[in-house]
Design goal:
single chain; alpha/beta; 2 domains; 7-stranded mixed β-sheet; 4-stranded mixed β-sheet; 31% helix; disordered N terminus
């Protein structure tokens, strides 16, 4: 009987993030963290490895429907023993009030993220939810488990792009568009996102149709609550480690300064771009890839 291969991940942090542009230029640096067999010739970003659960791409790659206890058991072993690879777009928006007008800034960043599920802080929560799912399956109940691995990335991103307190701040908003969320179910996933979209369309183009749309959405939620057990787990407050390539310096900044509220016009500065003005000095390129902790990131930014 074949045994499940256990991948050595004890030395990896919970989250290892890499700018998408740098990952596309040299994906080997991230792959080598869990698969040392990837060589210089394997530079395709679509490189397949049996040692990672690749969650990149459409939502269909992150939805797992199990039909029986055996399938759930095999999925549980994979989730607990293999790292997960995500690609995510993070967005942060901040609005400040100046005199009688609102000044807004929107910042975006694109990352490829490796999640180490063997880390004790992740493994404990993940095991608890998967054991619950197994219990529901054995009892013949319908369930849907939503695992949100994007909460920590959202926190890390917002903290690095906006650390200054503003007395006239009116709102902050950040999102990862659900690109680091996976679902495990034996029936179906909830369609709350679909209901929300339909209600917005009804409100914009045909307000009277809300008289029909709202009751339908409420009826769906009630039916869902009666027929299925929906559980959600957020993985938050976990440290993020930034992996940078040997050919890039810290001029590719993660933290961006917010626009000056006194300026007459606002421009959105993408995270993947170079900072305008004089080039940053004193940080030569490294000879090898480096893992930067949050404290080291603060010093270099």
């Amino acid at each position: 009987m074949a045994t499940e291969e256990v991948i050595e991940l004890s030395g990896l942090p919970p989250y290892t993030a890499m700018l998408s542009s740098q990952f596309q230029a040299c994906p080997r640096l991230l792959y080598n963290l869990f698969d040392p067999t990837v060589g210089d010739g394997d530079l395709d970003v679509n490189h397949h490895s049996d040692k990672v659960l690749d969650m990149r791409g459409d939502r269909i790659h992150r939805e797992f429907k199990v039909k029986n206890v055996e399938e759930l058991h095999n999925l549980t072993k994979a989730l607990l023993n293999k790292p997960m690879l995500f690609d995510t777009e993070l967005a942060y928006q901040r609005t400040e009030q100046l005199m009688d007008c609102n000044i807004g800034a929107r910042l975006t960043g694109f990352f490829v993220v490796l999640v180490n599920t063997t880390d004790p802080r992740i493994r404990q929560l993940l095991t608890h939810r998967l054991v619950q799912a197994m219990q529901y399956m054995q009892e013949g109940k319908n369930f849907c488990l939503k695992l949100n691995f994007g909460a920590s990335m959202k926190q890390w991103f917002s903290e690095n792009v906006d650390r200054e307190e503003a007395g006239c701040l009116t709102s902050r908003y950040n999102t990862d568009y659900g690109s680091m969320t996976i679902w495990v179910t034996n029936c179906s996933t909830p369609s709350t996102e679909f209901c929300g979209t339909m209600l917005c369309l009804c409100y914009l183009f045909c307000p009277p149709s809300l008289l029909i749309g709202v009751p339908c959405c409420l009826a769906h939620k009630l039916y869902r609550k009666v027929t299925c057990i929906d559980k959600k787990q957020d993985f938050s407050n976990l440290p993020i480690t930034l992996l940078r390539t040997r050919t890039h310096t810290v001029s590719n900044r993660i933290r961006c300064a917010l626009p000056n509220p006194s300026a007459p016009q606002r421009r959105t500065q993408p995270l993947s771009g170079q900072r305008q003005g004089h080039p940053r000095q004193g940080h030569p390129s490294r000879k090898r890839s480096e893992l930067l902790s949050n404290d080291e990131l603060d010093q270099t930014l």
